[in-house]
Amino acid sequence: MRIRFWLWVPLALFAFFAGLAAYMLTQEKEQFVASTMIGQPLPDFALPPAFGALPGASKADFTGGKPRLLNIWASWCLPCIAEAPQLDALKAQGVEIVGIAIRDRPEDVANFLSRYGNPYSRIGSDTISEVQLAIGSSGVPETFVIDAKGLIRYQHIGDIRADDVPKLLAELEKAR
Amino acid sequence: MIAEIGLAALWLAAALAVLQMVSGAFALRSPPGQVNALAIYARPAAVVQAILAVLAFAMLLWAFATTDLSLKLVAANSHSMKPLIYKLSGTWGNHEGSMLLWVGVLAASGGLLSLFEWRLPERTMGATLAVQGFVALGFYAFLLLSSNPFERLPVPAAEGNGLNPLLQDIGLAIHPPTLYAGYVGLSVAFSLAMGALMTREVNPAFARVMRPWVLGAWVLLTLGITAGSYWAYYELGWGGWWFWDPVENASLMPWLAATALMHSVAVLAARDALRTWTIMLGVLAFSMSMLGTFLVRSGVLTSVHAFAVDPERGAFILGLLGLYIGGAFTIFALRAGAVAEGKRFAAVSREGALVLNNVMLSAILAIVLLGTLYPLLTEAFDVRVSVGPPYFNPASAIFAIPMLLVMAVGPLLRWKSDKPARLQFELALIAALVIGGIAAVSFFGQFPLLPLLGLGLAAALAVAAFLPLRGRQLGRVPVATWGMVIAHFGIAVSLFGMACEGAFSKERLAAVAPGGTEQIADFAVTLESVTPIAGPNWTAIEAQLAVREDGGAPVILTPQARTFWSPPQSTSESALLTRWDGQLYAVIGNQAEDGRWQIRVWWKPFVTFIWYGGILVALGGVLAIAGRVRVDVKRRRASVKGARRRADVEALGSSGGVPAPQPAE
Questions:
Q1: Under CATH, which architecture does the A46-174 domain have?
Q2: Environment class of residue B112 by beta-carbon count within 10 Å: exposed (0-12), middle (13-18) or buried (19+)?
Q3: What pLDDT digit, counting tens, does each position of B322-370 carry?
């Protein structure tokens, strides 16, 4: 049997590809679209209350002495259920959380909060994703750290996991 | 309960894949002329495995149809308010579901192969089924260990998370399953190639067994790519029909490999040549399918399509790739030298033309593969590039143009050896059509080079496709030959559409106040009004465009800018006015400060021919399968009849005491 050189070419090419792909898979990759609004002031907005019990939200609510969290969520969003305990934990640490409910109905919002707890001081209702888009958020949930002057300082994309809580607290401290 | 049945079926199917693999492998250890007692389980295992895998998929379909929100997959990808058709299509509009569809098709093709294929020697069949079982096993492991579609939520969700609105379209209901069936159908070609390589039974009989599988997968790929291209064209609202996106390339590469394979299998079946090359293409075609799956699923490449990005899963698939592609090419390198060389042929011959076609197709494949993987290579050095049409179009054209010219001439050549002088008339006609076509078009204005060449070639190909029928009695032309003629004609039609779109498209982007009119080609487009409307799960801004052709009666077009709320996302719904000679394509954009609306309108002459051509090509493939299968069935019937006659003769001979006449062979 003659071993012919060209018969090994496909295997060599594949080995090269596999090595490259394996290397690239181990590299960190930015999966999320970061907001270009970071470092910018909040856009102007004034949203009506998302349901009866809490006031709505506007840009003016973010200008008073301390940093706050702006949480973009919705009652129809599953990861929002997952992050509810972490929001409660942040609230227990004395953080003020302003919510913006995306494309929601008052009865669904009330239902969600009675079931999973209410960490919010106020919730604005954004029925057409207007503020969400203006602030550079591409999905729910997302959480922004807003400093005392109303500047957007930090963006957290996706649900807040237990190990994200210290990180957010540190960002809030930095924004003070 | 439904989900548990599905999960149990998957585990059982995986167990049967092991049985199929082991039992099939025993066939290799059987002495010549006999059947190993342990090898008889491979066929039934493949059939039952197919039934179980299809059952698992049916269970997932059921869960989506009834929106069973206790299933994590349903809750994450469906919504109770979605129309039923999109609930069903949501089954494969996500990672786990589409992988289940993948293994379902894989198992079903294995089952069909073992039910209907009885011509191969049992050793080769056993080895083939062993490989098929081995491949299936890896994907079962992938599903069960890292992508379980039947995972329950601890607490059922109150409402589902919806489905990506881009995917809520009838295109999605057809395009991915077709493409998947094509991708995975190639697994049979892969297994057959490996099986034949292991037993060294690479011969025309083997090629005849492989051919319908390659043709079938190729037809489905053709249809899937055609449908996908049309879907991207009207759904993305960018007006283009091919974007050289990594995921589009992932579907194009198996198609190119399958096209080459289909032609080389034909050479092997008819002339017993190109043995090693056919085996390599058989391995390559399915490797490209798996590679495509890896690129889409792992997220190593950035694409508009990559919807389930997860490096861990990527690593799993890469491991499977290493096992299957790496293993197959290793066996190929070790064993292919031992496959006896096939018959020889002259450079100018049918085989020669098909070899050239194969080389060109492989070169295009290499161009597309390189362009697709190049960003991956540069990113390893922290340079971000994106490779687009400026690379792909000319680079692939360099090889596509000679390939198309050979395609016009090849079918006219004789097998084994031929003289160009015999084809003087045909060659002159083809050359005259190419040159005449280009000259005629250039007469009317300045056009880009590639579309111009495309128009000339399309004219020549359309005529050349029918030349093989010249001087033959049409009623006696085999069905498979009609298939070739129609498929080649379809390529010409498609090429014509692409070239026209490239050369003659007109575009108009204007800010229009309600009541305003814009002129494009022969059409006057008036923006009558812009109104908000609501659908089942979206709201939209809809423009009413009155289109008058040459001052005739108005036709109303209604392009929309849709906003879905679950999950929130905007899409642009184009509106199309189809004429036999082209399409008017309208999209509505944003509203400007002064109240005017951005309207974008294209007139694309003959653009629909791109997809008509695709359908013709697929139809040609169907005819080829039908023709081949009919001939095979006839041949088998004749041999059964012959055997029965011999048995009768023998029976007569033994009862009468007269020696039976020996059939003269």
A1: 3-Layer(aba) Sandwich (3.40)
A2: middle
A3: 999 999 999 999 888 888 778 888 888 999 999 999 999 999 999 999 9
Chain A residues with CB under 8 Å of B283 CB are: 10
Q: How do the domains of chain A map onto residue ranges?
A: 46-174
**B322 to chain A, closest Cα gap in Å:** 7
Cβ separation B379–A76 shorter than 8 A: no
Q: Is A92 on the interface with B (CB under 8 A)?
A: no
| Rounded Cα–Cα distance for residues A15 and B366 (Å) | 16
Query: Are A24 and B380 a contacting pair at CB < 8 A?
Result: yes
The pair of three-digit structure tokens given for residue B227, joined into one six-digit string: 């449908």
Chain pair A-B, CB pairs under 8 angstroms: 89
Q: Which element (helix H / strand E) includes B472?
A: none
**pLDDT tens digits for B504-553?**
988 888 888 888 888 888 889 999 888 888 776 677 888 899 999 887 88
Cβ proximity of B317 and B382 under 8 Å = no
Query: Which of A3, A6, A8, A11 would best serve as a mutation to test chain B binding (most B beta carbons within 10 A)?
Result: A11
Task: Check if A5 contacts B (Cβ < 8 Å).
Answer: no
Q: Find the length of chain B.
A: 665
Q: What is the pLDDT of residues B231-279, one digit of tens each?
A: 888 877 777 888 888 888 989 999 999 999 999 999 999 888 889 999 9
Q: Which two tokens stand for residue B529?
A: 């009004």
Residue of chain B with shortest Cα separation from A20: B377
C-beta separation of B283 from A7 below 8 A: no
Pairing mode, if any, of strands B582-591 and B597-605? antiparallel
Amino acid occupying residue A146? I
